[in-house]
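Postdoc handover notes: sequence design on the structure in folder B. Input tokens:
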């Protein structure tokens, strides 16, 4: 390692440690141990542009081991990516630009929100899928419009999470050769040595997944790190580089779990500074280091400038393709008139309605891509143009397999990459497997689309393990997540139209297994308010409901002893953004909530809620519904009893 490289790495380490010391909080172990990896990567391999941080053909770097945020922030500061010296000094402070774990912000060089271990690795897989697909669609001879790498830094904890096995196995199966995984392998985790919890032969594990494995014995040897990355870039498989580092190198407690997540003591901080021969004030950036990073930034800006010139030539030679390329970044505005031509006025399961609409829109919008967790026949959610595979990069149907945990995060990665509209699908009861990814999507303000069929106890014969109860409440409680539970075919169409137009939040669409009637009363303008009356509005009580229960409730209000009204609630998220919610809060008469699952959230609006607070049952779905008294006759009896108590 030459002197300037050593100075840069030491400065990177010290900026990281200065943040942690000032905040008296953070993870110094990875910051001290992995700094050479990060510097080598950005000095020699990553092309990004300070002038255009959202440049579509930039290389991606994801810090899956998000607890190493101080290292990422220090690197972004040196690259002049929007983080000032003052920002570093405010590390982990309230409302700072440098929170405890990285939060998605391209201006700061942060490609994804990470921290929940393994999520970053799976998102990187999604980014690599997007790169492969877009390059197949748009690249032409001598014009590699999309041609970049996705790098991800993982720790031992990331690799122990189950999501990592799912993500790595799919990456290997798909042959994502532009994906390079860098493993900060220090044999230590929070509670002690990795050997306390794992005896996996990592090389055998990785190679068995059809991923190339490389080994760097000394994590301070940037020459060997660079050689390994160069080899990886020449391969035809995803690559995994295990780099042996020493956690907290230079600390009094280096090589132990005591340095993983504990800020250094005053004595230890002095020892670290002496170890690295660093005799400068906190948050110092040496002139030589600043000069080297300016060179790195200049090289990245030049790459982006050259790409822009190439795209201009590409536009001249392939104007239709160039126009298509630009259109991929535009918002999808679905033609409302399609609803009448696509969906016949007949009873049908909303999962079927969703599948019909998705198929048509996928034909119109070729940047829609996604698939199901081995459940396409059930969810009806399938991409077009065949299966995305090693031999068909143009395919837009992703066979995720039974990998729900990774599926959600991979979908986020595709969305984060840009240029594609990504969706994934599964059974609603298994949305629990995707919840960490859904939560991160909402936190990142990205428009990933999650589809869940089999929305209630009407699953029937499969029984309580497959019948969702608490899932609707759980997802509706996630901030910035728009949850749709459409009542019929038209509301299903509207849900997808609104979800595809979204730019700042993810969406969940929940569909039925069983047929539901086509309701003439449902309409788009009212749907946009999130909830609306389906009846005249002059009743003596009001039922608030959603999904399949809507048609049943319309029967019920015509049979009870007092006249009632039905207020359909396709999306609480939209409702609370409209002024309609205030009208409900001020409604003078009795409000009854009705939903076939836990509906605690309806107490926001309702005086009484008829819901389910036990697990489901196995049987014919009509029998199961009746056993929980959600058939029309039972609801009439129960609501009449409620009305009797008011007299």
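Designed sequence:
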């Amino acid at each position: 390692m030459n002197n300037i490289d050593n100075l840069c790495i030491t400065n990177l380490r010290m900026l990281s440690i200065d943040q942690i010391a000032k905040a008296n909080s953070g993870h110094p172990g990875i910051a001290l141990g992995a700094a050479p990896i990060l510097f080598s990567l950005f000095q020699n391999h990553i092309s990004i542009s300070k002038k255009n941080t959202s440049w579509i053909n930039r290389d991606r770097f994801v810090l899956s081991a998000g607890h190493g945020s101080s290292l990422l922030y220090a690197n972004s500061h040196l690259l002049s990516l929007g983080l000032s010296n003052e920002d570093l000094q405010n590390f982990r402070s309230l409302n700072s630009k440098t929170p405890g774990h990285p939060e998605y912000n391209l201006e700061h060089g942060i490609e994804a929100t990470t921290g929940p271990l393994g999520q970053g690795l799976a998102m990187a897989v999604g980014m690599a899928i997007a790169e492969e697909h877009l390059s197949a669609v748009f690249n032409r001879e001598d014009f590699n419009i999309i041609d970049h790498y996705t790098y991800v830094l993982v720790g031992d904890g990331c690799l122990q999470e189950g999501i990592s096995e799912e993500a790595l196995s799919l990456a290997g199966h798909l042959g994502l050769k532009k994906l390079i995984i860098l493993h900060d392998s220090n044999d230590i985790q929070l509670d002690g040595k990795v050997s306390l919890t794992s005896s996996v032969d990592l090389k055998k594990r990785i190679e068995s997944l059809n991923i190339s494995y490389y080994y760097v014995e000394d994590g301070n040897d940037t020459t060997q790190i660079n050689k390994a990355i160069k080899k990886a870039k020449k391969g035809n498989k995803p690559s995994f580089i295990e780099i042996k580092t020493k956690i907290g190198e230079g600390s009094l407690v280096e090589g132990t779990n005591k340095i993983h997540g504990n800020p250094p003591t005053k004595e230890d901080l002095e020892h670290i500074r002496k170890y690295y021969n660093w005799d400068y004030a906190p948050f110092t950036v040496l002139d030589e280091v600043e000069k080297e990073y300016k060179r790195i930034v200049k090289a990245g800006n030049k790459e982006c400038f050259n790409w822009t010139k190439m795209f201009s030539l590409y536009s001249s030679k392939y104007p239709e393709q160039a126009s298509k390329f630009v259109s991929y970044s535009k918002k999808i505005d679905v033609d409302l008139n399609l609803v009448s031509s696509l969906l016949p006025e007949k009873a049908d399961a909303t999962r079927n309605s969703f599948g019909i609409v998705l198929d048509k829109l996928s034909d119109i919008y070729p940047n829609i891509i996604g698939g199901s967790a081995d459940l396409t026949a059930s969810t009806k959610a399938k991409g077009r143009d065949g299966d995305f595979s090693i031999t068909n990069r143009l395919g837009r149907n992703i066979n995720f397999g039974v990998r729900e945990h990774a599926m959600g995060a991979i979908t986020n990665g595709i969305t984060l990459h840009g240029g594609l509209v990504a969706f994934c699908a599964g059974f609603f009861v298994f949305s629990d497997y995707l919840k960490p990814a859904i939560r991160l999507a909402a936190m990142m303000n990205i428009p990933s689309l999650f589809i869940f069929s089999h929305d209630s106890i009407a699953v029937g014969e499969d029984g309580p393990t497959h019948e969702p109860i608490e899932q609707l409440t759980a997802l509706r409680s996630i901030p910035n997540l728009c949850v749709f539970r459409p009542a019929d075919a038209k509301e299903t169409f509207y849900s997808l139209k609104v979800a595809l137009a979204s730019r700042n939040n993810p969406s969940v669409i929940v569909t039925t297994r069983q047929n539901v009637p086509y309701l003439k009363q449902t309409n788009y303008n009212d749907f946009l308010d999130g909830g609306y009356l389906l009846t005249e509005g002059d009743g003596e009580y009001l039922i608030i409901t959603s999904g399949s229960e809507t048609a049943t409730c319309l029967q019920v209000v015509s049979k009870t002893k007092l006249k009632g009204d039905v207020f359909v609630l396709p999306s609480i998220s939209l409702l609370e953004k409209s002024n309609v919610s205030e009208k409900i809060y001020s409604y003078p008469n009795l409000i009854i909530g009705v939903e076939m699952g836990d509906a605690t959230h309806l107490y926001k609006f309702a005086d009484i809620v008829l819901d389910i607070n036990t697990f489901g049952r196995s049987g014919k779905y009509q029998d199961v519904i009746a056993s929980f008294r959600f058939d029309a006759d039972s609801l009439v009896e129960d609501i009449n009893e409620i009305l009797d108590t008011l007299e």
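Context for whoever picks this up: The longest helix spans residues 287-317. Don't rerun without checking with the PI first.
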